[in-house]
Amino acid sequence: MSASESPAPKPTSDSIQLFSSRSTDYARFRPTYPEALFNWLASQCAATDTALDLAAGNGQASIPLTRHFHRVLACDASAEQLTAGDTWLNVQRFVADAEHLPLRSGQLDLLVVAQALHWFATPAFFNQARRALKPNGLFCAWCYSLLDISAAVDAIIHRLYYETLAGCWPAGRSSVDAGYRDIQPPFPRIEPPPFALEAHWDLRELMGYLRTWSAVKQWQQRHGRDPITSIEPQLTSAWGQAGQRRLIRWPLHFLTGFPNR
């Protein structure tokens, strides 16, 4: 998709309500981004005065940025997301639409969008990003799709994702599955080093994470039962020893560049 041709699907009020209703689970069960990513982001910026985490959710990217930037802003369309958790120290939060950012021109050294660009990759948004960034300001959006655990567990999750939940994912999810390769920004891309999220979880934590998927909530509303409970026996069998913690990886995919160079 070209940013100058087909606008990305924007989250409806129902979508915002759905994400808001899961804000506590997001804070509890979502994996954290690697510190090396934030080291790299800071190293690419000419200055480290102000960073914005757009569509910040529960602050997974906002909090690590405070270790590298003097001032960190966090913006989201959902006030409930911005109040989830208790680790917002030194982050200035505000509610706003991505296409109407209440920022002055040339304010930002860095603008990041973690797992959300597919909602608003429109010409209007990229114009806002260009306006808000300094001449050498860095734009970096990233996403992750399916996780890697083991062949047996992955096969069960793939069936859940592609078969059981088919038709329940929001339209923008196709861009996530494409690793944002279908979004063409109005500036040259640069390629970051390879990064991935990693976690050591037990089966209970994995199931909690799966329940944060928007499609799981949609399926549950349609059918009146929890699809994760339905696959729990299969997951338990494939997982191995009860209580075992396993390494889980989510490769990150990037859309990164300097809009004003």
UniProtKB/TrEMBL annotation:
Family annotation (InterPro entries): Diverse_substrate_MTase, Methyltransf_11, SAM-dependent_MTases_sf
Xref: Pfam families: Methyltransf_11
Transmembrane segments: none
Keywords (A to Z) from UniProt: Methyltransferase, Transferase
Biological process annotations from GO: methylation
GO molecular function, one term: S-adenosylmethionine-dependent methyltransferase activity
Residue span, Methyltransferase type domain: 52-140
SUPFAM superfamilies membership: S-adenosyl-L-methionine-dependent methyltransferases (SSF53335)
Family: Belongs to the methyltransferase superfamily.
Protein name: Class I SAM-dependent methyltransferase
Organism from which the protein derives: Stutzerimonas kunmingensis
